[in-house]
Every structure is written in C-alpha cells, then in structure tokens.
Design brief:
single chain, 10 helices, 2 domains, two-stranded antiparallel ribbon, 260 residues, Lysozyme, mainly alpha
C-alpha cells in the first residue's frame, strides 16, 4: 500500500528546489566555506602571525644595534674613514705586504681615480675586455705631452709596452709559447704584476717596503715618479698629487688593520 510522505518534508524539498531553480540565491548569497570555521581559531592564527612578525622585527633591531656597537667600538682603535676607503677602493689581490698594498692604492688614487679603475683607459673611457692589454692609443689633450698618444690603461695606467715588459717578469701566468696568447689584464693580474714589481729590490735598487715602514714616503714617491709621473716629482701633476700623503696614511691604517 502506497504511503504518502509527510507534508512538512515534501514542502521543504519543494521550497529548496524552487529556490535554486528560480535563481533566488545569487553567488553573494551562497554560504561561505569559512562560515563554519570557529571564530576563535581564526583569531588565534592571526595573533600568532603578529607575534612571529614582532619577534622577527625585534631580532632584526637587536642585530642592527649590535652591528653599530661593534663598528663604532671595535674599530675605535683605528680611525678609518670609510668614505675615503670607498673612494680609493681596495685591491682585488688578496694578502701581501700592507705597506706595498697601501702604496699601490696611493698610486692608483692619482693615476686612475675612477669608479672602475681596472677598466679605465686614458681619458676616462672604459673597456670591458681585459683578456689582454687594450693597447688603444688615445691623444693626450693637456700637459707636456699634449698632442702625442698614449696607451695607458688599467688601475696603474700601464703603457702597452711597459705591461709587456713587466708581465714577462712578474705575471703569474706567462703567455703561451706555441702560439701567440697575450698576458691577461684581469684586475688580479694588474695587482700582482705591480706588487711583485715594487718588491723587486734588484730593479729599484732599494727596499721600498722598508723605506715605507721607516716613514720615507716622499722618497718613495720621488723614486717612482719616473714611472708614474703624477706622484709629485714627475712632469704631470694633477689635482690629486698634493693629497697623496694623506691618501697613503688613510689607506695604510686600513691595510694594517685588515692584516692583523
């Protein structure tokens, strides 16, 4: 015998069907999937995120303050002007005699006072290929050699001919013999060639490092002025020449500190 369903149950199904079919419920009216999530749990998660963020900021702040303390008091025994250090950047070469390193930085402060000293050629233009000396002859625009051309390049403004001579003596990677392959002019090799050159007592006839340790900077600059003519005793002084003793003292303090 067929039994009819209760009116209440039937009416509920009919109402549900009509509501959906008739479009009475818009997407905005549909229940949110988060509607059943307990409010307390959501609030707790938000609080945990804020706590983690505040902890991170606190740790970062403590670390920054500690760095300031170390910088100010840890280096207090050596008055290093970091602005000057950035103006005359450190060598790419690592290690070595701090007095010779300071002298090299002093030479380059006068000879190649540019943001990218290893890549600069006479006149202030830059080259990107340092697999060999650029060997570009640029016309000299001022000074006693005005009108002539120069191939000076790199941090120490090597002439191409001087570079070949000194690289043959001091370059750590000699040119290949079976076929022509020029000496690399990469920054570390520019440094190494000059460093070994300045240490060569037989070439200069004196111990340059010892002279520097004895405070005889002016004698050293005079000795080198035949090679680097802007050091104060040559024929091509520039706006940096008179400041070289101050530059040397500044970078020497830094080099001595870093060598400890």
């Amino acid at each position: 015998m067929h039994q009819s369903r209760s009116p209440r149950r039937r009416d509920r199904r009919v109402v549900r069907s009509k509501t959906i079919a008739g479009g009475d419920l818009t997407p905005e009216m549909m229940p949110s999937p988060l509607a059943g999530m307990p409010y307390r749990r959501t609030r707790r998660r938000g609080g945990l995120f804020k706590l983690l963020l505040l902890s991170f900021l606190l740790l970062w702040g403590v670390g920054w303050l500690w760095g300031q303390v170390v910088t100010r008091f840890g280096e207090g025994r050596v008055a290093i002007d970091h602005h000057l250090s950035n103006e005359w950047p450190p060598l790419v070469m690592r290690g070595g005699d701090p007095y010779i390193r300071s002298l090299m930085r002093t030479i380059s402060a006068s000879e190649s006072n540019y943001p990218r000293p290893y890549h600069v050629i006479y006149g202030g233009k830059y080259v990107s290929d340092l697999s060999h000396h650029p060997d570009r002859c640029v016309t000299i625009v001022a000074g006693p050699n005005q009108g002539k051309c120069t191939t000076a390049a790199g941090r120490y403004q090597f002439l191409s001919s001087t570079w070949e001579q000194m690289a043959e003596r001091y370059h750590p990677k000699p040119a290949r013999f079976w076929y022509w392959h020029p000496y690399s002019f990469e920054p570390e090799y520019q440094d190494l060639v000059v460093y070994r050159w300045l240490l060569d007592q037989e070439f200069w006839g004196v111990d340059i490092s010892r002279m520097l340790q004895e405070g005889r900077l002016n004698e050293v600059l005079k000795l080198l002025s035949g090679t680097w003519t802007s050091l104060g005793y040559g024929i091509e002084d520039n706006m940096m020449t008179s400041s070289l003793p101050r530059v040397y003292e500044q970078v020497l303090q830094e080099e001595l500190y870093l060598s400890e």
